[in-house]
Amino acid sequence: MNNFTFHNPTRLLFGKGMIEKLSTAIPMVHRIMITFGGGSVKQNGVYDQVIKALKDRDYIEFWGIEPNPTIETLREAIQIAKGKQVDFLLAVGGGSVIDGTKLISAGIQYDGDPWELVQKGYYYHTVPMGTVLTLPATGSEMNSGAVISRKETQEKFPFYSNFPVFSILDPETTFSLPPYQVSCGIADTFVHVMEQYMTTTDQSRLMDHWAESILSTLVEIAPKIKEDPRNYDLMADFMLSATMGLNGFIAMGVTQDWATHMIGHELTALHGLTHGATLAIVFPGTLRTLRKQKEGKILQYGERVWGINSGTTEERVSQAIEKTEQFFQSLGLSTRLSQEKIGDTTITEIENRFNERNAAFGEAKNVTGSVAREILEGQMHQLQDTLTQIALHHIDSFRHQELVHMAFLRQHRFALDQVPGIMLAQDPQDDLVMLLGIFRPMHDSPVGDRIFLELLQKRVQMAVGVKLDLRGQLSQPLPLGKRMAHLIPFGTYHPKRMVVPSLILLIL
What we know:
This protein is α/β, with parallel strands linked by helices. It has 16 helices and 15 strands. The protein folds into three domains: 11-173, Rossmann fold; 179-377, Dehydroquinate synthase-like - alpha domain (Dehydroquinate synthase-like, alpha domain), CATH 1.20.1090; 390-505, no CATH class.
């Protein structure tokens, strides 16, 4: 275990009805500024609870801190706070509102442009603040960090100041959250833990087990929350998991990564994606790219979180990565850049930004611009060559670059955006359909693919009852191969008998 200094002064007030404690939690001050986001707190009753608790206090309200808070909005809040002599801040909302309020607390005490503080990375001469958390995800309610964006330059940087004096966490405030926000919050929490855990083996048994307990909790409760999003106990576990995932408790004495987060910040800055959504895309790619470096920890994670304890080392590592990606998919999140219509232009821009800043993230400080490119390129497309059901064979490059065999089994459903989830038939002698085809490069028109796959779907369904779930993904290119000069016969056959005559499609 490495040397460390631990300090976390934030007082948690957790549970049903705890918002009424605001009247005593906030010290007697001159004037309070209450910061909000877009207005959902007026719909779910949180606003009324806050105002009731502060009915005898002097306060002003500032609305409009957006997701991924921008310096442009925060400058306005800082000027108002200075003019009204605000000496305490109360952030009511999710991580974005809390992050933005942290910069406001620093900017009130700073004479220059607050963006200078963001560029500096830290500032500890601040106005005290508290929080009422309504969206678990970032852990900002119990740490000193924030992430601030600048619309003008499409940049997003971390910033550190002082901890909140207190944070109120009432699980009932989460009951009205949209499912997508809950999913992004779970993904955000999961990757926060992984960034501190998925590094080096044998550093701390205690930290490992603590981190694994949070990961296992998230895996257990995620499908239950999907079915019952107003379950108090489930949302309580989720809310506290998010807080414990990034309040420093699982980071004591261990190395950390944060490469995925830094790449994710760039995706948010360039495309406005929700932070948790970017992590669901990037993190599986980080594991794949750095699998040798992280092999020992991936094996440990696979065994303790997913119960993977058989197979070769390579098989167990691959399975653990696939389980992770499937978990994000089960939340309804994208795990490929192509699903968000993000391509090579963005990858090049992120690589250039990393290089310009001499960035080097990860526990080994080896995630540079080129490695970030490799991570993102690995997460471009829907179909993965890691599947045992797909075998790629290189043949005459002049005629065909890639030969793809895909096996579909009777009564099973194959979704292109859920490839790792394909299930094998119990009886290996089930009717087998072998599909043989050459697919076009990523920059060619998708029309031919759509025609081919639509025809293919009908043919297979008539033959053996297999359903090919395309789920709107056919508009995305299928990058298996360099050229679609031909779509070769796909034949269907059984070890004992022919099921369907071969069909030859020729697309020029």
